[in-house]
Amino acid sequence: MKETQEMVRSDVFAKCHQFTAAKEAIARGVYPYFQPLDDSEGNVVTLRGQQLIMIGSNNYLGLTTHPKVREAAITAIERYGTSCTGSRFLNGTLAIHHELDHRMAEFMGHEAAACFSTGYQANVGAISALVGKNDLLLADKEAHASIIDGSALAAGTLKRFRHNDLDHLEYILQGAKDYSGVLVAIDGIYSMGGDIAPLPAIVELCKRYGARLMLDDAHGLGVLGNGRGTAAHFGLEKEVDITMGTFSKSFASLGGVIAGSETVIHYIKHFARSMIFSASMPAANVCTVLACLDVIATEPDRVQRLWENTDYIRRRLTRLGYDLGNSESPIIPVIIGSNELTFAMWKSLIELGVYTNPVIAPAAPPGKQLLRTSYMASHTREQLSLAGDAFLAVRPLFEIGVKTPGLTEEMLREDDTQG
Question: What is the pTM of this model?
């Protein structure tokens, strides 16, 4: 009789017991994630009874509390209920889903569009459907995680080019002759750095080397191009092959959209697993986006106010000597450079009544840890001034690469009287 050899295997849960960093931060009182907000009015939130100025939200146009938007969501629940209880592929498509598809296609400058339950699912679904066995997905190093995750489900190959590095992009395109097709994926506005992709040059490279271009415009819609996005900002709506957008930012809802030619969108709708095997956007989310489209059309000054607020706070933070990286948008990172300082500064700002988002690896590379700040059309000048005062108050406490030492408080406050 053969002796049975006992199999030795490690516990799949072992990694869970070994992960202690978050609990250590909790014990020290500097853990910044999963904070339980008690209430939110957009630009002001309540955390454990304390009112805070919110400068960490993607609510760029401040539409989450707009009366018409709220009314649209409430009316939709009263008519359609709380869920579609099925995927768009089967029983989860309402007439309003088709209306939203058509209106988003028109808004984004494409022939057709398909709306998904989240922006993440939109990217994962489109990329996994389009990038086949002999194809190449060529993504910017700082492209959103959903683009990279989509490549994991795709049958093709993923390569990444250095962030906004046109020479590196061209180098890889030159060597991509053995692939059947190439899809270049970029963000319009990058979610951590706040910088804008050099879209005209990338469009030209894609044309020269026969590649298709996918633009993740999650942070560009509602912000650039009078709200219509990065391609509209550059006048290149007809030159981008497919555009992705989200509804959880400027559109005050939840969901995502892929827009492109009718033929490509038709194909994605039939092969995107994240659409076929997920329940569709609830009616309240759909009607919220439709209402936001109406508000953007009738209140174009919201985009202007967003940029006025952005310019004001950028001047203030720059004068305080903070390193804001290459930001060109309402996303303004304050680069700090270490986990410990990032968490400590976040906590100090909370105590001063300002909510920011601490970002460490892998979302920010080592030495570039940052506080991600972002601004809204609905911020008042008083709120932004108070936020600037908070950054002034913490400046002496943290040596974070301040560029202009020796400024007096009066000098630092001086630009409050400008603009």
Answer: 0.91
